[in-house]
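In the previous chapter we treated chains in isolation. Here, by contrast, the input contains two separate entities that must be folded as one system, with a combined length of 229 residues.
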Amino acid sequence: KAGVTQTPRYLIKTRGQQVTLSCSPISGHRSVSWYQQTPGQGLQFLFEYFSETQRNKGNFPGRFSGRQFSNSRSEMNVSTLELGDSALYLCASSSGLAGGPSGETQYFGPGTRLLVL
Amino acid sequence: TQLLEQSPQFLSIQEGENLTVYCNSSSVFSSLQWYRQEPGEGPVLLVTVVTGGEVKKLKRLTFQFGDARKDSSLHITAAQTGDTGLYLCAGGSQWGNEKLTFGTGTRLTIIP
């Protein structure tokens, strides 16, 4: 079974631009969660999508948004980029049957490393 | 805001030694997960504990969830170079808006 894939793997943007990251979950998984990982703040939960609806969310500003398509693929968008948005963005997929990311095994992708200049 | 503090932040030991990593919080969690992350990869789930006082063993790794479900520990016996990596604990909250709160991380290096 193919694992979670994320594209692109690396991205360089400038302040004020917007960016869209993509995540393809493991086949059959209906939940996709997004995380931001930085050296200073560690790994932080952004939001989770299940059946095309945002089901759970963390404490990030509205500049961070996402969506999920009918094939469970998910995209995350960050608008008006700031220097502090430089990070490794990880997505994780799971069956989604447990109600959220803490109730079952999540499988992480390798991440997209975003650098904002 | 729920916080999970891990200690130590960095740990470097010789192959064959034992070690313990701690994960502490003032908040109660419904579950506690441990992950290991290697460079260039996403975290990989090692174990999930859900009951206060629960102990789980996976070969040389022993995980414990505190009685009050606020803390956890990971003990590795006879460390091997393959154990090198970033260890992350993550607390689950299943009341209302469910989310995972990750710990600050412990970077473990096993010296051959």
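Residues 11 and 114 of chain A are 5 Å apart (CA to CA). Chain A has a mean pLDDT of 93. Compare these points with the single-chain example from earlier in the chapter.
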